[in-house]
Amino acid sequence: MGTIHPVTAEKPTAELLSRTTDILTKGGCVVIPTLCLYGMAANAFDEAAVKRVFAIKERPLTNPILLLIKDREAVDALVTEISPEAEALMKHLWPGKLTLVFNAAPSIPDVITAGTGKVGLRVPSHPVTRAVTEAVPFPITGTSANISKEGGVSDVQDLDPRIVNGADLILDAGCLKGGAGSTVVDVTSTPIRILREGSTPAADIHAIVDTLTSF
């Protein structure tokens, strides 16, 4: 059963951050805050850890899972190509509520891509999770901390008992803003495709991309 540990909105203490990274490095699962909802983090390169997240969430292995990374530079080792549109969106909207879908590098486990050959990446903007991504040498999963097909959770008090029991640690950053999750954009095609409109309006995305062809 996951220990619920309060954490300030600014960043975890050095002791808590060390404990979190140790759990993730050893194949554990940690519930983390994003701006809108709580998510489940595991080492994306540890297939057993990722499968454990799927099992806790009762999520079909046929569903891809997005990853959280520390910065733009981390993208290079995880994808096969980066289009000008992707560069522009990362420059203007990361860190933030935007997940970009790229063609995955061979190093990405199939359990992450669900055999699609694509991977969704985001640089989180919540300071607690940013601190976690910056402290570990691997990307982490960013799937929502809920049972599959059920709604996301903005307060740890509302976490499903199965999530609480399955996690090794829960970073409680208080009640989050809730609402829609990140907007998901596939940047592997031209034109780009908005797969899901969330917290970042589609109009903002199109405005950035349109500047590339306005000269």
TrEMBL record:
Its EC number is 2.7.7.87. InterPro entries: DHBP_synth_RibB-like_a/b_dom, Sua5-like_dom, TC-AMP_synthase_SUA5. It comes from Desulfoluna limicola. Belongs to the SUA5 family. PROSITE patterns: YRDC. Residues 14-200 form the YrdC-like domain. It is found in: Cytoplasm. It comes from the Bacteria. This is L-threonylcarbamoyladenylate synthase. Its main location: cytoplasm. It catalyses: L-threonine + hydrogencarbonate + ATP = L-threonylcarbamoyladenylate + diphosphate + H2O.
